[in-house]
From TrEMBL, chain A:
Topological type in the membrane: Multi-pass membrane protein
Source species of the chain: Micromonospora marina
Keywords: Cell membrane, Electron transport, Heme, Iron, Membrane, Metal-binding, Transmembrane, Transmembrane helix, Transport
The name this protein goes by in its record: Cytochrome bd-I ubiquinol oxidase subunit 1 apoprotein
Annotated family: Belongs to the cytochrome ubiquinol oxidase subunit 1 family.
Main subcellular location: membrane
Entry's Gene Ontology BP terms: aerobic electron transport chain
Automatic annotation (TrEMBL), chain B:
Subcellular location: Cell membrane
GO MF annotation terms: electron transfer activity; metal ion binding; oxidoreductase activity, acting on diphenols and related substances as donors, oxygen as acceptor
GO process terms (BP): aerobic electron transport chain
Keyword line: Cell membrane, Electron transport, Heme, Iron, Membrane, Metal-binding, Transmembrane, Transmembrane helix, Transport
Keyword Membrane: yes
Similarity-based family: Belongs to the cytochrome ubiquinol oxidase subunit 2 family.
InterPro entries associated with the record: Cyt-d_oxidase_su2
Protein name: Cytochrome bd-I ubiquinol oxidase subunit 2 apoprotein
Amino acid sequence: MLSWGFQVDALDVARWQFGVTTVYHFLFVPLTIGLSVLVAILQTMWHRTGNERYLKLTKFYGKLFLINFAMGVVTGIVQEFQFGMNWSDYSRFVGDIFGAPLAIEALVAFFLESTFIGLWIFGWDRLPKRLHLAAIWAAAIGTNLSAYFILAANSFMQNPVGFRINPDSGRAELTDFVAVLTNKVALVTFPHTLAGAFLVAGSLMVTVGLWHVMRNRDSADTGAYRFATKLGSWTVLVSSALVILTGDIQGKIMTEVQPMKMAAAEGLYTTESPASFSVLTVGSLDGSRELFAVKIPYLLSFLGTGDPNGTVQGINDLQAQYASQYGPGNYAPIIPVTYWSFRFMIGFGLAAAAIALLVLWSQRKGRTPTSKWLLRAGLVMPVLPLLANSFGWIFTEMGRQPWIVFGEMLTRDGVSRSVSLTEVLTSFTAFTLIYAVLAVVEFKLLVRYARAGVPDVTPQTDDDTDDAERPLAFAY
Amino acid sequence: MELTTVWFLLVAVLFTGYFILEGFDFGVGMLLPVLGRDDRQRRVLINTIGPVWDGNEVWLITAGGAMFAAFPEWYATLFSGFYLPLLLILLALIARGVAFEYRHKRPEASWKGRWDQAIFWGSAIPAVLWGVAFANIFRGVPLSADHEYVGGLLDLLHPYALLGGLTTLGLFLTHGAVFLALKTTGDIRERAGALAVKLGVGTAVAAVAFLSWSLTIRSSAAAVVLAVGAALALLGGLAAARVRREGWAFTGTAVAIALAVATLFAALFPNVMPSTLDAAGTLTATNAASTPYTLKIMTWVAVVFTPIVLAYQGWTYWVFRRRIGVQNIPQH
């Protein structure tokens, strides 16, 4: 029905919609994961020390957290519905396994998160201080727990375990739920994703703190901002170390369970032992020949196998192997996408860590940073780990292609047969439009509230108006 | 009891919980322009559900997740088949959820006005479409022998389904008005109580018509009892609202919603999605279900965690039990 000079079918649009809505959703998830814990830590410090500085920071970063949280919640609902709407044959194929972690995520994690976030937002004057503190921790735990279940579900797609294929129905059936929850891909992806989330949250904390430190030098709250800047910088440094550590383990597991993805990350066409890591390769347009390359010898072997002389399989050899195993077809992902997203993930993540180091250095021994360049670097800082997170997901999902469940189901076989191109185009367009508008609104609000700075927290004079007449401590 | 029956009941319970809880949220959202005469009054309305709406919506996420885990075929056929209505529901829930959080973030009347629109439409659209969707599930839709939906959008929009939509719209409006009468003070409380009675009379007519029509499509003794119970609970709730017994009125509308949903599920069992074409296309609690092993695990998880969730969610309602009025709304 559409003639654009090239063929677009419902499958293509469904894929684009999944990519766009998932990457978009994951712009908000890292901040929710990381900031919930950081705000809980700040409130705990206030609780322990009674120092008003920490209360101010709790409320200030708490507001930024909530502006972001709302977006994470509403874009998350789409994710759960989307499997059934656009990928119903996938849902039928894996529902016996994949549905369980999703349902558990809702029952165990989302209820905890959403209920206690409500108690925390509105409970400042309704709950005893200790319970109110417990509420933000419960919400933070719920948020972090939800990441585990959804990553266990995703890891099944990368490295299916604990199942069998029912010969009668042709569907995957759960045989060992513990194996699904302790999938080695899940066990390492969980800390990797959390560390990546804290990289984003710490960066935002630095950005906002640093801006206030450098803009309002004589403000009474400078001490609070300096503290936030430091807490954020250390969060970034520690989490970047954890990202690297877990990423390294991930690389080895990936080489073992998804060798094609590792080869695609590197654009390694022929099996090598030892294999060198390409820092930058410029190939001929068809990608079959290298024109220019910067390589570190032995590194890829070491990353992939832990042995500098280890063998890393190449794309061509794996393709031949898969073709004989699964039948004719192309079993390689789109190499430029995997190659570059892998490098952008690492590069943007490291850049954020480098800025955090600079920020800490600039504030050593109570100094106030003055460099305009530092301020600029600080302002772009949260964008870097956000991009790293996005590229990490693009890498891991695109690197799995053409499979939707590695070795078991092709992505093209998972799409809904009953959904027309018009329907999926309508939904893709609608989501893209509403998401674009909301992105602008959200970003402007974040900037507005970040600029406004820490709130006044002097307690209201305790007059004798009775409870029924008193204004709420917080109201929408 | 068969585990597939247990999960049929659990999915029914989750949707019932969702409609009771988000039902009054939707009602409050739709009554925003009616009962909220100025910004302060509108803030009173929004703040009656402020601390709880998000937790209420998780009932839907859990119902969807439970459907996916326990009845993947049902989940896959329903969600891909009811594509455009579900898309509209999603867009509505997105706009509405963000609106609650963002509306008070800027003082301009134009800003607040736009979010008020989002709250109104974001509540009204799902309130109607959930009724349309459940009426279609109940009546049956064109399903091929391999359980694919083969109808179009217009196959979902027939008089019975529209009456279903009108019924949920009316039930949620009445339920919301009763909830507001229970949770507010002063002028809003009075007007909400009076409006609940007026809305309730029309709703009762629609609900009785819809449930009667439903029982002519498929029925069982239990379903008839439940339907009569739903009608009586609604009338009882309205009588209580008339004499300003707000707690009883709310109990009445909540029970009415629960029994109405129960009526549909009771008459539907053991089917979960009947086919109007080939009988082989009909999805049942058996042929749509996951394996016994998956159902057993999910049952344990539900047995352990559902009471915990109910306890802390119930406690939240206790924490925020106080009525609020315009005097409780802070300046900012």
